[in-house]
Design brief:
By secondary structure, the chain is mainly alpha-helical. The protein is 53% helix and 9% strand. Helix 2 packs across helix 4.
Length: 150
């Protein structure tokens, strides 16, 4: 059973999938950082100094009654919150990853669409009577002198 598992795990597709998952996870963390650290601060600044990671709605106050200045304060107090700002960050991250995957698939599809040049038109044919190779435009076989149908 261990030998069969080793054969399965070392197949090209499984190894390729594992590499893809590892690269995807790394790409996801890069995109999360891009959204949280680079894109959202200027967007928040343009929208009036809004910090999207601290946008939340308190459903039930915790041990310490709010209002809470930040999401971390609400969590520390044990408040039940809807974290819609974190959700907005996640949606933007998803859109960026989906667009990157779209561009990758689009490039792969373009490479697949590039077809090889069609084979050249034949210049010879076989005489049906003597099986000799003759010109495709011949109307009479040069070897057996049979009349050929066009």
């Amino acid at each position: 059973m261990l030998k069969e598992f080793k054969e399965f795990a070392m197949r090209g597709n499984v190894v390729d999938m594992a590499v893809g998952i590892i690269i995807g996870a790394a790409f996801g963390s890069i995109v999360s950082s891009l959204v949280a650290d680079i894109l959202m601060p200027p967007i928040g600044l343009l929208l009036g100094n809004v910090d999207f990671s601290n946008l939340f709605l308190v459903l039930k106050s915790g041990k310490v009654v709010g209002p809470y200045a930040a999401l971390a304060d609400a969590k520390a107090a044990g408040a039940v919150t809807i974290n819609y700002g974190v959700f907005v960050n996640a949606v933007i991250s998803f859109v960026i990853v989906a667009f990157a995957v779209f561009l990758l698939i689009r490039a792969i599809n373009r490479l697949k669409r590039q077809e090889a040049a069609p084979p050249p038109a034949p210049t010879t044919k076989v005489c049906p009577y003597c099986v000799s190779t003759i010109s495709i435009t011949a109307t009479r076989c040069a070897h057996c002198t049979s009349d050929l149908k066009a």
